[in-house]
């Protein structure tokens, strides 16, 4: 209709033609009456009809003109009300150059919404996909691992909680007995072949920072931070041994521990380099070289150091599990100290170990270890021992048995036994002994709620006869955590701990607050996790 109205003049012409035809028809039907009318009457009638038709045509033209004006107004309003993002941005800039209150919050919001609505959908999808791809790539390249525990507690005397540990013991039973906040934060970056695909080499760096605080305040001057790992590792270099890994730097090297008392059976962490996981078909092997320096002793050769060569065979198939063998040779060069002018003799030493591990046993595993060491290797780690004249005769042997059992989703337990004897090599001293046994049973009520217990017993004896006795500790700890496995973490726990000890250890257990006592309590809360 609008199109018809826009062609106003042709329509008027059509109306004129129709009027003429109508007039002719009227004349045709009125022919009989011409005889009865005079010429003047006919003329008058024709003039009157002309006037009527002219009036009708004028009315129609007026209506057409009105409709055309309305159509033009609609078109103009439509054009005026069509606002583009560019128009809005231009308007926003014009307002921004003027007084600040001219551009309202609603106007700014409208600009942003129009900008988002008018953005090409293809571009948005493409940009999102590119960002997702970048994030996926970064996730493959970068890894973040760690361990932490933290909590708070008080002792039965009203002060800060203390740890109950026997003197001369290599560890303590941990549950409800850790009076510190401790963390290890490990950052890993995969530089090449983050997926460790078998057809090309891979390369990564690892850095670990350790934090240890006394839980006094969160900015205490006694808080300690250490750099524990900083090494580079590369693998799949040898076509004949694709599993072999080469490394150099500072690292935790193939450590073995028992969790519930955090005792490291083998802890050869330190500075060095080597190769590991060489496949010999019947076993895997690793070879590493470490250097440990004594911070306080200097000779003409520099700092007093211990050189350690560590060799291992592992994953050897055996009845009921797998067997591993460990050998260590250590050597420290002597000299004359620069501060006290004392002569230090050169000393060597060796150590060996055996482990039998049964994996996937009753929901857990079983591990037995035996170790023996002499001289500079008697401490079973890369650190230097004090260079006494008796160090060549120093000896240590150790036997451990640890198990994790979880026969059902309701119950799990880790028991352990440790026995160790050490000799400093001094002819006037006896052997230091340490016997420890304990367990941590856990009862799971559902997916997130459990109850843990931990009884532990340690008996120690000093080589000089300064002390001899035992410590008993018992903890009960309701827990909420991530799952119903023995090693499910994170976990939150409240705890009550009771410990008592023999008179032979009075003054050696519990710190100053319990120096004249033979028993004590701890109460507190703790969080623990690793990832």
UniProtKB/TrEMBL annotation:
Transmembrane segments: none annotated. GO terms for cellular component: cell outer membrane; pore complex. The keyword Membrane applies. Keywords: Cell outer membrane, Coiled coil, Ion transport, Membrane, Porin, Transmembrane, Transmembrane beta strand, Transport. It is a multi-pass membrane protein. Belongs to the porin LamB (TC 1.B.3) family. This is Porin, LamB type. It comes from Koribacter versatilis (strain Ellin345).
